[in-house]
Amino acid sequence: MKDFNKKMPPKILIVDDEPDILEFIKYLLEREAYSIEIATNGIEAIQKSRSFKPELILMDVMMPMMDGIEACRQIKLYPDTKNIFIMFLTARSEEYSEIAGFEAGADDYIHKPVKPRVLLSRIKAILKRGKNPDYEHTVLTVGDLVIDRSSYSVSIKDEKMILPKKEFDLLFLLATKPGKVFNREKILSEVWGDDVFVVDRTIDVHIRKIREKIGEKLISTLKGVGYKLEG
Fold first, then answer.
1. For the chain, does the N or the C end have fewer beta carbons within 10 angstroms?
2. What is the DSSP letter of 53?
3. What is the DSSP letter of 221?
4. What's the CA gap between 101 and 14, in Å, rounded?
């Protein structure tokens, strides 16, 4: 008899054009009881993200046919895949590469060569964030701004829009306490996690993108401190 109460293992899609890296990470994650699928380019990643429906995608940046950043951008366009966590695997350390990845909707970066303990720790942290029930069905209203956590949608004066996950999480955090200034350390800890390294400009880029969508005046900057959502 089947045990219908048995918990299914989290599903992870690994995307890389280097066979050795694919096999190494696949072996590492299967040993931790994750359910694994692999892809070798961005186009295949998009296809498998829709058929396999993983909770997390580990994706190389530089790949043939379609790079990881463009694949991430397209995955975030589909309603059935837009909330999948995406962690980039990259040998590149340039700041612009990380900013481009986060602008495309990525949740984390990890640099090659991959260290097993670091990778496993980051995966557990990112999957844990996805299972946090505290915000799952929360709707926040600040003036004309309505933020719905369950659908990752934002409405302002009845105009509805969908924000990339990190932009949404950042706006949601500010909206939990309108008028309160959140410093950079608090924003990084709450939105990206304590064990995730991001460059200083990452928050600024996300704030700029949010302002472009909801208006310049709703989020204020306190120089040298942080940001607040006007109440």
1. N
2. -
3. E
4. 17
Residue 43: partners with Cβ closer than 8 Å, 6 or more residues away: 65, 66, 71
Which amino acid appears at position 30 of this protein?
Answer: E
Q: Does the pLDDT at position 97 exceed 80?
A: no
- Mean pLDDT in residue range 152-166: 84
Helices 201-214 and 95-104: angle between axes, nearest 10 degrees: 30
Give residue 103's Cα distance to chain centre.
10
Domain extents for the chain?
11-130, 134-229
- From residue 1, how far is each of 4, 5, 8, 103 by CA, in Å? 9, 12, 16, 47
Give the strand pairing for 56-60 and 85-90: parallel
Instruction: Note whether 13 and 37 are within 8 A (CB).
Output: yes
Share of the chain above pLDDT 70, in %: 86
- CA-CA distances (angstroms) from residue 91 to 22, 41, 97, 110? 15, 16, 11, 9
Tell me which CATH code domain 134-229 carries: 1.10.10.10
Q: Which CATH number fits domain 11-130: 3.40.50.1240, 1.10.1660.10, 3.30.230.10, 3.40.50.2300?
A: 3.40.50.2300
